[in-house]
Amino acid sequence: MLPLAAPxxxxxxxxxxxxxxxxxxTDATVPFDRTRKGGPPVFESAWDWEKPAEISPLxxxxxxxxxxxxxxxxxxxxxxxxxxxxxxxxxxxxxLIYHTAAVHQGLVFVGCQDGALYAIDAANGQIxxxxxxxxxxxxxxxxLGDAVFTASKDGRLYALNAATGRLLWQYPAAGQPPLAPILxxxxxxxxxxxxxDESLTAFAIDIATGQLKWRxxxxxxxxxxxxxxxxxxxxxxxxxxxxIQSFHAILGRYDSLLARRAGISRxxxxxxxxxxxxxxxxxxxxxxxxxxxQDYLRQVIGENPWDQTCFVLDLNTxxxxxxxxxxxxxxxxxxxxxxxxxxxxxxxxMIFRSAYSITDGGYMVRGYTDIGTWDPATGYIRQIDxxxxxxxxxxxxxxxxxxxxxxxxxxxxxxxxxxxxxxxxGHDSYNVTADRKLGGHDRDHLWAANVGSAAGNGGGxxxxxxxxxxxxxxxxxxxxxxxxxxxxx
Amino acid sequence: MTKPxxxxxDECRMSEWPVWQGRAPLAVxxxxxxxxxxxxxxxxxxxxxxxxxxWQKLQDNPAAVTSPAAQAARAELIGEVQKMLDAGIxxxxxxxxxxxxSFICFAxxxxxxxxxxxxxxxxxxxxxxxxxxxxxxxxxxHQPWNASFQIxxxxxxxxxxxxxxxxLPRPRSSEVPIVxxxxxxxxxxxxxxxxAVRAGYGPLRDQFIRRVKAMPEDYAQTTAAxxxxxxxxxxxxxxxxxxxxxxxxxxxxxxxxxxTAFDLAYEKNVDKGHDWSYxxxxxxxxxxxxxxAFAPEVMRMLREQSQPQxxxxxxxxxxxxxxxxxxTRASMPTFFGQYYYTxxxxxxxxxxxxxxxxGQHDFGQENSxxxxxxxxxxxxxxxxVLGDNAEQLSRYMDVPWTRVGDTYHMQKLLAIIRAxxxxxxxxxxx
Lengths: 489, 430
Hints:
The complex is a heterodimer.
Chain A: E1 43-50, E2 62-64, E3 67-71, E4 76-81, E5 87-92, E6 102-104, E7 107-111, E8 116-121, E9 127-132, E10 142-144, E11 147-151, E12 157-161, E13 167-171, E14 187-189, E15 192-196, E16 201-206, E17 212-217, E18 229-231, E19 236-240, H1 247-262, H2 266-277, H3 282-285, H4 287-303, E20 310-314, E21 320-322, E22 340-342, E23 347-353, E24 369-374, E25 381-383, E26 403-406, E27 410-414, E28 419-423, E29 429-431, H5 436-439, H6 445-452, E30 467-469, E31 472-476, E32 480-486
Antiparallel strand pairs in A: 1-32, 2-3, 3-4, 4-5, 6-7, 7-8, 8-9, 10-11, 11-12, 12-13, 14-15, 15-16, 16-17, 18-19, 19-20, 20-21, 22-23, 23-24, 24-25, 26-27, 27-28, 28-29, 30-31, 31-32
Chain B: H1 4-11, H2 23-32, H3 36-40, H4 50-55, E1 56-59, H5 68-87, E2 93-96, E3 102-105, H6 109-119, H7 125-141, H8 180-191, H9 194-211, H10 219-234, H11 238-255, H12 258-269, E4 282-284, E5 291-292, H13 296-305, H14 307-321, H15 350-357, H16 372-386, H17 390-394, H18 407-418, E6 424-427
Antiparallel strand pairs in B: 1-6, 2-3, 4-5
Helix pairs in contact in B: 1-14, 5-18, 6-7, 6-8, 6-18, 8-9, 8-10, 9-10, 10-11, 13-16, 14-16, 16-18
């Protein structure tokens, strides 16, 4: 019998990207003043929890029953009150913690570089059990039903009974040769758990039997700490891979391709962007133009398969459903950001590239990068008509990492200096970070933003995805775990 | 917050030759009186003379491999060597890290042969025979004194785990690594292949004379001088050997100032605009081909002459900035960890102080992960310079970077095995 997803609290964010499917979407929300669109911040600080030790930028706070959990480089797991920001307990594990924990059925699960998955009592921080694997664990566990899944650099995926730690199965089975090391956090749902190893092969394992359901080769040089996005209802699993080529070379090549095809020079692109910034209907009015561009991109990527860093696979068969019209979109050679998926409504959001983009309002590092609404069934992406509003310049840095998450009302975009949000309905922009300085481009933004905003520095470390839980938004900044609440008038 | 040097002290044995204690205040005083600095700064060498570092080699002792950590490392080392023997000639491994493009590792014949010959005493007898033949065949095909690369992209067994496109970056044309002189000595010492010595010594010495000033500037050049002096002695060229010994000794003496030597190597090997590495033993890197020499002799000198300095310098990196230094494909560190919030600790190494002053682009932030040489370099420093024991070292082992042919991984395993007992140094003539 397949385990059923145990519903997390509606206001929880209990796993990496919210759920075992890594959708990055929650139906919860945090009330905010919509009249502040394009204006001053809509949130204000609830608390800042100063890190006693360094925390990996890959660690998302996970939240359940009003408590947030993070692990640090000293191997300590911290429980933090979402109400007060005070430490409730700490738990020492056996090694460096590199990725996000999961909280499920009263236990906090965390993988460790010492090779063990730890199950810690969420109430008091006592270690209930641990399961030792053959190498370090640098991935986030996925918990679903009565099981928790962890992937190890020993090249095996382990399914464990969440309550007892009993080994349910491992893939490959004991006695079989291991896979390549696994740096990709598994995603679970639809009766399977899916992950990719460093041979760049994606797998789906039947949760009930531990048997291989399908395997599909991908292309790239690594998974490098990212995750598949799995939609049960949508019936897809999406992988993004780290590119083999220099990221600037890929970005530059597609700059040229897009510009040449559209006949839009850099100056003309600036004009186009200004037009778009004055309009709420430009993209809607030019839907066919955009679709043709995406058909062109599918063709080019299909003819140059090593350019492909986004793979949309059928959840049941592992067959590629279509070539997404998404060239490389990241920075620093990082694995590009996976999409966010509202599985119930079969819609998502994806960073993509287009000559008709509205991007890089502040930096002009790299044009043609944009955020759009992604149709998982067809792969087409609709640009978001999102007029320039007031302070807003957070809107992407075209050659760097942009990570996504969403709640019922807001789509969050996290870059290294800025956190911003777009209203899911209406597409207005909202300032998320604490003050003008952090959201804008002041001279000292490099410093200020890293204290106040995303965890990383430039180039690719945009890993501070915003989490919505317990009536707050919370994220892992460079110095603090920061929580914000609706701004009072 | 634990200071890095305090934390690393907890884990490492102190130097048996604690020279230069209190050097910093002394240096301040000496700076104030100008010329005396250069007079008083020269390195004392109480434990061993430079000549000893040139003419003594590390003696392996397979019988001492009794600890569980060392035994496990030995078993894994045998497995890694077996994979290479099974694969045949292994191709190079490019790593595309981001803005700095691709670095190509494991492509220098000299390094491959060195790693295999270092491992020899710990391999089963029949495997030793096969390894010697493998090394001989490799040298015959890709002479380390003529060809910069043992093999070009697209040839040999692809070492990566994942398939790669054929148009990946090719190695740029590059000079023959002069550290191959040391690697050639190791090969000859292990195999007795004098034919290779006779063929390789002349070209490598010519390269050395042409490229190295009177005194070696960095540890790679010093390593090359040690190797050439030994090769010359093998060929009974006593005059040349003496001259090269003098060069090596001068390099060793100057190299006891670790910070200065490191800064030179950093300047030469790191594109500070977007990259970061820890390259004290690196001969070349910016030209994409990574050539690194982990010579136990040089690390012995550092252990005996400069251990506190190395401890502070490398410890600042391992314990504060790059906490994930030992992890395979670890993300590039974000700023400086705990140091980010301070204007710059007094004990920060020079290259880190420069980074503070240099703005964002001195942080190497537009590359996505640390290149393979970083973990290997810091690991061997822990082993040979700081003196971690086998159990301590095994905590910092991670998975190989490639399916086959990760010679850095093999050298790390060897370091664990050797750390099972105290090092013994014997004359190269023995």
